[in-house]
């Protein structure tokens, strides 16, 4: 399952860093996207959005204002779901996702992984 972490940070104290690390540990194919150079457990943080269309999940770690530049890409990618982690909830993007039949949820990726519900949520 291919998962994009939008808002990935090279800072090990950030939740987005932990999410990338845990997703790798749990065996997911992870694409970290962020604005700062760096790596997370050997994976390069990309600044460009993947052109992939087989992305299953996009998990968001950006505030709503920083998400706007990604709206078109998210819709065009047609992921099976988008996860809004705490602090990233965005009614405007949620409406767009709804209009394009893209499922979304408000959840913590780390919690979903730790309770074995990441794939089921």
In short:
It contains five helices and seven strands, in the order βαββββααβαβα.
Textual characterization of the structure:
There is one protein chain. This protein is of the alpha/beta class and 121 residues long. The chain has a single domain (2-114), classed as 3-Layer(aba) Sandwich (Rossmann fold), CATH 3.40.50. It contains five helices and seven strands; from the N terminus they run βαββββααβαβα. The strands form two sheets. Strands 2-1-5-6-7 form a five-stranded parallel sheet, with helices on both faces. It starts with a strand and ends in a 7-residue tail after the last helix.
Name some characteristics of this structure:
single chain, 121 residues, Rossmann fold, two-stranded antiparallel ribbon, 7 strands
């Amino acid at each position: 399952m291919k998962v994009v972490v939008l808002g990935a940070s090279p800072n090990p104290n950030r939740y987005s860093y932990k999410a990338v690390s845990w997703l790798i540990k749990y065996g997911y194919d992870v694409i970290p996207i962020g604005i700062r150079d760096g790596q997370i457990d050997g994976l390069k943080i990309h600044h460009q959005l993947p052109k992939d269309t087989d992305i299953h999940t996009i998990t968001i770690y950006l505030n709503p204002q920083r998400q706007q530049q990604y709206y078109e890409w998210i819709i065009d990618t047609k992921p099976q779901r988008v996860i809004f982690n705490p602090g990233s909830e965005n009614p405007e993007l949620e409406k767009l996702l709804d209009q394009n039949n893209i499922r979304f949820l408000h959840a913590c990726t780390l919690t979903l992984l730790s309770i074995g519900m990441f794939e089921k949520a």
